C-alpha cells in the first residue's frame, strides 16, 4: 500500500567534481584536435630531416609509418573513449533482455544493430553465446549478433570513416549488417540447434535480472577511460604491426603487382582474399592500415574489404574459442554462410565502385 508514508525513492548520488570531469573531457577533445591537425606537417618535417632521397621507397614507407602511427592510435583512442561511454548504457544482461523472446527476422535485425555498440571480443564469445541460449534467444538471432559485433564494430567504422571516407564507411556498414542479418537468418532457418555442444543444449532458460544501478556522468566518463586502457593497451602492438605492413606495401610493393593480384579484372581475387584472411589474426585497428595502403596502391575496394571482413569476422582464434560451444559441423556451416556473404560483398563492392 502506498501513500504519504511510503518510502521515498532514492535520489542519484552526484559526484562532487562532476563539472571538473566534464571540463577535463572537453579539454582533452580540444587538445586532441589540435595535435591531430599537426600530424602531417610533423611527419613530413621528421622524414625530411633524415638522409633519405625524397620520393624513394624508403622515404615513402617511413613517411607512411611516422604519420599513420600517431594518427591511428589517436583515432582509436577517441573512438574507443566515445564508445566506452556509449557502452556504459549496455551490459550483457541488458543485451540478453533486449534479444530474449525476439523472433527471427526482426530479431536478426535487432541483434545485428546491437552488435555494433555492445561489448564483444573473442574472449567474450563463449559466455555471451551461453547467456543468449539460456535467455531463450533463437540460434539464428544469436549468430547475427556474433557476426555483426566484431565485423561492424565502432572501431572499424570510425577508422574507415577517418582513413578512406564516409562513403566507404557507410557502404561497409550497410553490407556488413546485411551479411550479419542474412547469415543469421539462414542459419536459423536450417534449425541446427541439435549441432550445439550437448552441455550447451542442456542449459535451461532462466529469468534475467537487470542490476539496479545509478550511473552518473562521471561513471560514464570513467567507463570511456577504462575502455581506452583496456582496448588500446591490448591492441597497440597489432596496430604497429599493421602499420609496418602497410608502410612496406606503400613503399616497396609495385602498383602493377597489387593490381594484378587484387584488381577487379582478376575474378579469383575476392575468394583468394577471403581464404588468405581467415587464418590471420588481427583486429580492425590492426588491419585497417593495411587496407589503407592496399587501396592507395590501386587494389580493388571489394577485394580489400572482403579480405578485411574475413580477418575480423572469421579469424581462426575465434573459431577455436567457439569450438567450446559449437560442434565442428555447426562451425563449418557458420564459416560457409558468412564466407559466402563476404564473397557477395566483395563482388558487389567491386561492381559498385569499379
Characterize the overall form: globular
Strand and helix order: HHHHHHHHHHHHHHHHH
Structural class: mainly alpha
Instruction: Work out the count of structural domains.
Output: 1
Cα Rg:
23 Å
How many strands, what sense, and barrel or not for the largest sheet?
A: none
Distance between the termini: 69 Å
Strand content: under 5%
Helix content: over 70%
**For the residues shown, what is the average pLDDT?**
77
The tally of helices reads: 17
Beta strands, count: 0
Low-confidence stretches: 1-13, 204-212
Report on the architecture of this protein:
The chain is mostly helical. The chain has one domain. The longest helix has 36 residues.
Brief description of this entry?
The chain is mostly helical. 71% of the residues lie in helices and 0% in strands.
Topology, element by element:
Elements: H1 18-36, H2 39-48, H3 57-87, H4 92-99, H5 106-117, H6 125-134, H7 139-151, H8 154-164, H9 166-189, H10 198-201, H11 217-252, H12 255-262, H13 269-277, H14 284-296, H15 301-313, H16 316-322, H17 328-352
Keyphrases for this structure?
354 residues, 17 helices, mainly alpha, disordered N terminus
Amino acid at each position: 500500500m502506498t501513500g504519504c508514508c511510503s518510502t521515498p525513492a532514492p535520489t542519484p548520488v552526484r559526484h562532487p567534481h562532476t563539472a571538473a570531469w566534464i571540463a577535463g573531457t572537453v579539454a582533452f577533445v580540444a587538445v586532441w584536435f589540435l595535435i591531430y591537425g599537426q600530424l602531417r606537417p610533423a611527419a613530413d618535417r621528421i622524414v625530411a630531416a633524415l638522409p633519405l632521397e625524397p620520393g624513394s621507397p624508403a622515404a615513402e614507407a617511413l613517411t607512411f609509418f611516422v604519420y599513420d602511427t600517431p594518427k591511428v592510435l589517436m583515432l582509436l583512442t577517441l573512438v574507443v573513449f566515445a564508445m566506452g561511454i556509449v557502452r556504459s548504457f549496455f551490459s550483457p544482461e541488458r543485451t540478453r533482455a533486449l534479444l530474449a523472446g525476439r523472433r527471427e527476422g526482426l530479431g536478426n535485425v535487432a541483434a545485428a544493430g546491437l552488435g555494433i555498440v555492445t561489448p564483444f571480443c573473442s574472449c567474450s564469445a563463449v559466455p555471451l553465446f551461453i547467456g543468449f541460449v539460456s535467455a531463450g534467444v533463437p540460434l539464428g538471432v544469436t549468430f547475427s549478433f556474433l557476426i555483426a559485433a566484431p565485423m561492424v564494430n565502432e572501431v572499424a567504422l570510425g577508422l574507415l570513416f577517418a582513413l578512406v571516407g564516409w562513403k566507404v564507411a557507410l557502404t561497409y556498414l550497410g553490407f556488413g549488417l546485411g551479411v550479419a542479418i542474412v547469415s543469421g537468418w539462414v542459419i536459423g532457418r536450417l534449425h541446427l540447434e541439435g549441432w550445439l555442444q550437448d552441455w550447451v543444449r542442456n542449459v535451461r532458460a532462466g529469468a534475467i535480472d537487470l542490476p539496479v544501478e545509478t550511473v552518473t556522468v562521471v561513471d560514464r566518463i570513467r567507463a570511456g577511460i577504462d575502455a581506452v586502457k583496456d582496448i588500446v593497451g591490448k591492441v597497440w602492438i597489432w596496430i604497429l604491426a599493421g602499420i609496418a605492413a602497410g608502410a612496406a606495401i606503400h613503399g616497396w610493393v609495385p602498383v602493377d603487382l597489387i593490381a594484378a593480384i587484387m584488381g577487379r579484372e582478376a575474378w579469383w581475387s575476392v575468394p583468394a582474399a577471403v581464404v588468405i584472411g581467415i587464418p590471420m589474426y588481427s583486429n580492425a585497428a590492426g588491419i585497417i592500415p593495411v587496407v589503407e595502403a592496399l587501396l592507395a596502391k590501386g587494389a580493388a575496394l571489394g577485394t580489400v574489404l572482403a579480405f578485411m571482413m574475413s580477418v575480423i569476422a572469421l579469424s581462426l582464434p575465434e573459431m577455436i574459442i567457439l569450438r567450446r560451444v559449437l560442434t565442428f559441423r555447426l562451425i563449418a556451416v557458420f564459416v560457409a554462410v558468412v564466407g559466402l556473404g563476404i564473397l557477395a560483398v566483395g563482388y558487389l563492392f567491386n561492381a559498385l565502385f569499379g
